[in-house]
Amino acid sequence: MQAFRFKPLIALAALATAGTVHAAADIGEPAPGFTLTDTSGETHALSDFEGRTVVLEWTNHQCPFVQKHYGADNMQEQQRTARDEHDAVWLTVISSAPGKQGHVSPEKADALTAERNAEPAAVLFDESGDVGRAYGARTTPHMYIIDADGTLVYKGGIDSIQSADPADIPKADQYVVTALNEMAAGDAISEPVTRPYGCSIKY
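Given the sequence above, the corresponding structure tokens read:
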């Protein structure tokens, strides 16, 4: 798949970092519960996945930082790794409000999944923004990991280099993959909170 390229000024204009995270989404505390609808109209509750690790990915397909990771197959590879190596459930969440950048129909969301060979367990719609706000999600991408006990164990960026350049991916620390590997080894997550980067979520 061809990697996306962006002019530095465009990337800088789109850059946003997280603000204050709601206390309800504190590391070591129960993750906020939710029930959301996927592209086929099926509802998914966080409680449905009790006993399994859950990865939450906030997305906006028009964001150059999201395009960076999908265009380079990094997001898809992490989805496959989470599923195949860690038996984790990967849920992609769209919190863009109707009429705002990143808002899509179920049909468009399915087309994007197919075009990008993405492999989340489901793409979920949070048009009200209630779930995004409960988690303190501020950017796309913004990543969270919930362990098998329903505890929030990671929140932050997908990796350590805040740019929209796909060439930076191999040089970056991949926070989500590292956290999953540490969990599998029975170790404490070395960096449970990191700084997310990307486009601001269009609530």
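Strands lie at 16-17, 35-38, 43-45, 54-58, 89-94, 122-125, 139-140, 142-146, 152-156, 197-200. Try to locate this feature in the token string yourself.
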